[in-house]
Structures are given as C-alpha cells and as structure tokens.
Amino acid sequence: MKCVIIDDEPLAVELLEDFVGKVDSLELIRTFNNAIDAVSFINQTNIDLIFLDIQMPHFSGIEFLNTVEKKPLIIFTTAYSDYAVEGFNLGAVDYLVKPIPFHRFLKSVVRAQQTFNPANVQAISESTTAPEIDQDFMFVRAEYENVKMNFSDILFIEGLKDYVKIYTTDNKFTLTLISLIKLENLLSCKGFSRIHRSYIINIKHVKSIQKNKVLISDKRIPISESYKNAFFERINL
C-alpha cells in the first residue's frame, strides 16, 4: 500500500517513518507537517493509506478529510482519545492514541490491508521486520567505545535533547548520543514504557506509583498526561 504521513510533530513523523519501514507491504510516498499542503497532493496522487494526525494548527485532520476529493484509507493518529467516535464516524480504519507502540501500529496496518486486499493479510505479518525478541541487551556508543548494556540492569532513561542518560542498577549512568524515540521503539517490547516526554522507565524496577509519579530506586519520575493512559493500561491500572 502506498502511504502518506500527515503530522505536525517531527518526533511522531520520525516514529511512524520507522514503523512503516519495518512493514514490507507499505511504501512511504511522502510526509507532511501540515494538512493544508497535503490536500492538492492527495487529490492528484494515487495514495492507498494516510496516517493522519487530528489535532493540528490552522487545519485539523478532520477538516482535511472533509476537504479532499479522493479519500484513501485513513488511520488517525492523535494524543487525544476524545476524537475516537468522530474518527470512526468518518470511516477511519483505525484510531491510534500516542504514544503508539509498534504492535498496535501493526494491528492497524493489518486492519487496513483487510480492507485494501484481504488476500495479502498473512503476508504482512510474515514479512514484517521486528527486533529479535530473545535479545536481552544492546550496545550504545559512549565516548570512544561501544558499551554493552543488559536491559535488566537499566532503571530508567532520561532524554536530554540529542543525548540520553541511561541510569543503571549500579548507581551510575551512561551518556550516549541517540534519540529517545529510537530507544522507545527498541525497548517497548522489552518491558520498558515511555511515561514522559523526557523519560523511559523499566517497569520491573518500579517500586510504587504515587499520583503522577513513579518511584524507581530513590528517584521520583513524573508521568505526563499524554503518556499516562497508555502506561496505566499497560500495567493494568
């Protein structure tokens, strides 16, 4: 399926680009950071699927969908669950609430494929490239060497613009040049959860949850509203 991403958040676009690249049956044609610029392109190009943010400045995803003449399959992506009913009323294939885990993204793609070409649904799962589920470590670049880090030893990760601090059980941290969103993609299937724009935590090291904070070791880490629902759902709260 030929697809387009429309989202005003650069990190969200980066994550979706990465996800699309893992699915052989998807071909990313173009990305847009606003819906206005995408209208004429969609009307003039054969696109099968759009990953469409709803809440965008000046021109929302819903306004976009009511404007375009051609209507490809739509998967809404948004940080707000309030629009779910309206999204499905507009004929959306699915509705993804950010932060979006890969397994949930893949489920939406399979659902879109069932509508687009039911015969190829099995091929999506078989051809999808995903991280090795049995690998329990990663290597990160720190100064002039690549350091092996066991996932079980990581307490939490703090984002600092282009760098991250990886805190471990030995009361030390490693500073490495990598984006938090790439680590989120890698670690989400390893028992880690993004709970804040600046933090990823290892769920197994959580001692307690106090209102909008988690306690890991002696550190109280904030839970932001945009990640709270997904985190609580994951830990069955």
Automatic annotation (TrEMBL):
A cellular component annotation (GO) from this entry: protein-DNA complex
GO BP term, example: regulation of DNA-templated transcription
Assigned keywords, A-Z: DNA-binding, Phosphoprotein
Tagged with keyword DNA-binding: yes
GO molecular function (one): phosphorelay response regulator activity
4-aspartylphosphate: modified positions: 53
Domain Response regulatory: 2-113
Domain HTH LytTR-type residues, every copy: 147-237
Pfam families reported for this sequence: LytTR, Response_reg
Domain of life: Bacteria
Phosphoprotein listed as a keyword: yes
Protein name: Response regulator transcription factor
Species the sequence originates in: Flavobacterium geliluteum
